Every structure is written in C-alpha cells, then in structure tokens.
Amino acid sequence: MFTSLSRFVNNAAGLEKTLRIAQSLLLINVSLSLAATGKSSWSLALSHIAVSRRFFRLLRWVDCWANAEATFNDQKSNTLHRVVATAKWSLLGIYFFLEMFAITNVLGATTYSWGRPLEIEANKFWVYGLGASIILSLVDLATLPSAPVPNKETVQALNEKGDKNKTTVPEKKEISASPGTNSQNLMKQLVIDTCDLATPGTLIGWIQIDRAYVGAAMFVSSLLAATDIWRNVQAASVPQRALATKGKK
C-alpha cells in the first residue's frame, strides 16, 4: 500500500492532485473555522499550496494547444466532436497561457497593476473551456452507439444452439464511440467539469456560493480525477516491476 502511495505521489500528476485535495480540505476548513488565529494559519497554508500547484500547470498550455491541433486534424472523429474538442483544448490553453504571466505577482516578486485583471480574464477562459468540455461530454454521450439488441428469433436460435453445445448467449456489450471512451468515463468527466466550474466561477463573480461549497466541489473533482491517475500510475509500474524481477534472475 505504501509503495503504491509513494509511486502515486512521486508522479507529477499524482502529486498535483494530492495537493489539490489538500487545498480543497483547507478551503473547507478555513471557510468553516470560527477562531481568527486558526483561520489565519490555515489561510497561509492554503495560499502556499495554491501557489505551489501553479508550477505544475505553468506550461500546460503547450499540451492543450497540441491536443487542439491533434483533435482538429483527426479525420476519424465526427465533425461536431472535432469542433467542440478543438474549442475545449484551445480555450483551456488560453487560460493556462494567460495565467502564466501572473505568477510573479502571485509570488510577490512583482506588483504589476495588470496582474489581477489578467487573472480574471484567464479564469473566464477556464469557464469557457470547462463549458466546452461539458458540451463535449454531452455530445459524446448522445452519439455513443450501442450494440444492436438481437431479435426474438436470433435469441431462440442461440439458446437452442447453447443447449446442444453448452454455450450461452453472449451478453450485450456497449460499444464505445472512440477507443478508451465509454459512458462511465464520460459521466465521470461530466461530473469533474461541473464541479470544477465552481472555482473560476466564484473567482470572477459569476457564481455566488460559499467557499466551503467550492472546496467540496474541488474535493469531489480532484478525487475522481485522482482515481484515473492512480490506476494509470500503478498500471505503468507493472512492466517495470516485471523487468526488475527478470533482471534479478
């Protein structure tokens, strides 16, 4: 267990999500804290974690725009999916790109007057990008094909054949719209994006909710995203462990 946890935390994406979960819990604690002294201490820790997480996404705009280009050039996807997905990655790339220029103000190294307005505009693009991502999930869910249901005659014939050969009728399986995509993953992404809307929405004043609810939404989205990262990190370590074991032999 500790080895798996260490492997997860030593992964950049895993560490970022761990910090985000900690940030969400601190945000809830600060919002609900009544003691001024304790609230000040937790607020300081909250700000430090928030700043540290910025370095993980400092150049993430490069990946976003690369994804936008790859999606736009993907001729295998339908036109609607390509357009919405390209818009999603382009908008998120703009958010990360604009936010990058405000990091010196956040660190206290500079006091540019345009720093705060730039962050507000950046968070607007975050909202736009999340909105596009939500639309993309809904589009993919709506266009997700499923295996045709066999008619009565086919089922009867298969059952008769199964009685003779001791086989069973194959279960109905859902066919994904694209490799690695299924309804469960799309629903999870839909929940993640919806929860994430609370963070930039409150920062720019478009959503009026208590910070405790923002922290709760951040916790849910971070935990859901962390499960996928955990699974990928642990799966990637299997070949490495196999090679290490083989090397010892």
Q: What would you note in describing this structure?
A:
- The protein is mainly alpha-helical.
- The chain has one domain.
- The chain has 11 helices and no strands.
- It has helices at 2-9, 12-32, 36-54, 60-72, 79-100, 103-107, 115-142, 152-165, 183-196, 198-203, 211-248.
- Helix 2 runs antiparallel to helix 11 and helix 7 packs antiparallel against helix 9 (183-196).
- The longest helix has 38 residues, at 211-248.
- It is globular, with a radius of gyration of 23 Å.
- The relative contact order is 0.12.
- The model is unreliable at 166-180 (pLDDT under 50).
- Tell me the span between the first and last alpha carbons: 25 Å
Largest sheet at a glance? Answer: none
Order of helices and strands: HHHHHHHHHHH
Number of domains: 1
> DSSP helix count?
11
Helix content: over 70%
Shape by Cα distribution: globular
Beta-sheet strand percentage?
Answer: under 5%
Mean pLDDT: 85
Number of strands: 0
Structural class: mainly alpha
Radius of gyration: 23 Å
Provide the low-confidence segments as ranges.
Answer: 166-180
